[in-house]
Amino acid sequence: MTTTRLISNARQWARTIKRDVHAVWLAARDPHTPWFAKALALVVAAYAVSPIDLIPDFIPVLGYLDDLVIVPLGILLVVRLIPYEVMAEHREAASKATERPVSRLAAATVITVWIICSLFFARMFM
């Protein structure tokens, strides 16, 4: 397997996980999703955004390896617990959401606000 093919496969896998994360978020609000799938989705999401990890991030390689393994495995488990029809519906909605055009004006506005706030605080403390 060539390096280019390996990188291509990794990118496709990352896109699939990203779509499934959005689909799980949508499915967690669906009344047809079992409560235990909703609960596990909440646990996986909380672990993903929590600053507390099983292996602290300051430990070289292993610190980030747990995030690269545990979170995707948790997402895959949640996806398997959600009924196929519900997941298919929300995967389609998640795919459509990623196809929407990006607002460059909104991005520029947010960046401008951050710069103004940064300059304000820098001036205030200097």
UniProtKB/TrEMBL annotation:
Residues 37-73 form the DUF1232 domain. Keywords: Membrane, Transmembrane, Transmembrane helix. It comes from the Bacteria. It is found in: Endomembrane system. GO terms for cellular component: endomembrane system. InterPro entries: DUF1232 (IPR010652). It is a multi-pass membrane protein. Pfam families: DUF1232. Signal peptide: none annotated. The chain crosses the membrane at residues 35-54, 61-82, 102-122. This is Membrane protein, putative.
